[in-house]
Amino acid sequence: MLEKIQETAAFIKARMHTRPETAIILGTGLGSLVNEITDAYEINYSEIPNFPVSTVEGHKGRLIFGKLGNKDIMAMQGRFHFYEGYSMKEVTFPVRVMRELGIKTLFVSNAAGGMNPEFEIGDLMIITDHVNFFPEHPLRGKNIDYGPRFPDMSEAYSKELVAHALEIAGEKGIKVRQGVYVGTQGPTFETPAEYKMYRILGGDAVGMSTVPEVIVANHCGIRVFGISVITDLGVEGKIVEVSHEEVQKAADEAQPRMTTIMRELINRA
Ligand code: HPA
């Protein structure tokens, strides 16, 4: 495992002429941030040894390096989901590679179903914590020396970055929510009873990504900021049929707001 990570990192390093300490996983709602990267150079996932290949519609598979404002960054366009059939090790492989490349801070986004009754479709939710509902743990197996066998998760999402993001949202007049993200395997959206259960268990929003990458980032000592766009509601009395298209539509509408917060935050972080 470690040899594979190092082989992949060596391949990427040989093609890098910047040294970013900031990485972004361009999940739902952040796709257009790509257009703001200057001095960009790219590596397709298909060229990278040991890298899984993205299969989901609307997710392109490449690493993009360049500048966002004055900051050197590395962006993953296309992430790997457990529901696609990848193992948790594969889903989180790029984060371990990031650690080898010298990444110190990771920014992630996703689409999620809102379970907090105050939430509305199109809201942005700054993730303050998560509940891991994936059926396999990404750190299961021999511990890699990036971190301890039993990693602390008391501040999985950097409180400092949450505070900065709230400041930025205030300055820009963008309404944001805060809450707990429940990570599930998908690919089904939840039944009404499941939304209710995740709400009772402490969740404000539920989605099918992010948690694996965030766990591994924490193990590697990479600090994390995450944000969800609420694309549908899992609130009793407000539950209607959901489709991937509607999720995309709500996410596209929220994209400019999410992009503004991320751009500013990354520049100040
Ligand atoms: N549940 C799970 N994942 C999701 C949802 C949802 O309601 N909306 C967007 N991704």
Sum up the structure in keywords:
269 residues; alpha/beta; 5-stranded mixed β-barrel; 6 helices; 9 strands; binds hypoxanthine
Q: State the helix count.
A: 6
Strand arrangement within the widest β-sheet reads 5-8-7-6-9
Low-confidence stretches: none
Q: How far apart are the first and last residues' alpha carbons, in Å?
A: 31 Å
Distinct small molecules bound, one entry per kind: hypoxanthine
Q: What number is the mean pLDDT?
A: 94
Largest sheet: 5 strands, mixed, barrel
Number of strands: 9
If you compute it from the alpha carbons, what radius of gyration comes out, rounded to the nearest whole angstrom?
17 Å
The SSE order reads HEEEEHEEHEHEHEH
Structure notes:
There is one protein chain. The protein is of the alpha/beta class. It has six helices and nine strands; from the N terminus they run αββββαββαβαβαβα. The protein has a five-stranded mixed beta barrel with strand order 5-8-7-6-9, surrounded by four helices. It is globular. The chain starts with a helix and ends with a helix. The structure holds hypoxanthine. Hypoxanthine binds at residues 111-113, 189-190, 206-208, 231-232, 234, 242, 247.
What topology emerges from the helices and strands here?
Elements: H1 2-15, E1 22-25, E2 37-44, E3 62-68, E4 71-77, H2 88-101, E5 105-114, E6 124-132, H3 159-172, E7 176-183, H4 192-200, E8 205-207, H5 211-220, E9 223-233, H6 244-268
Parallel strand pairs: 1-4, 1-5, 5-9, 6-7, 7-8
Antiparallel strand pairs: 2-3, 3-4, 5-8, 6-9
Helix pairs in contact: 1-2, 2-5, 3-6
This protein binds hypoxanthine.
Hypoxanthine (HPA) binds at residues 111-113, 189-190, 206-208, 231-232, 234, 242, 247.
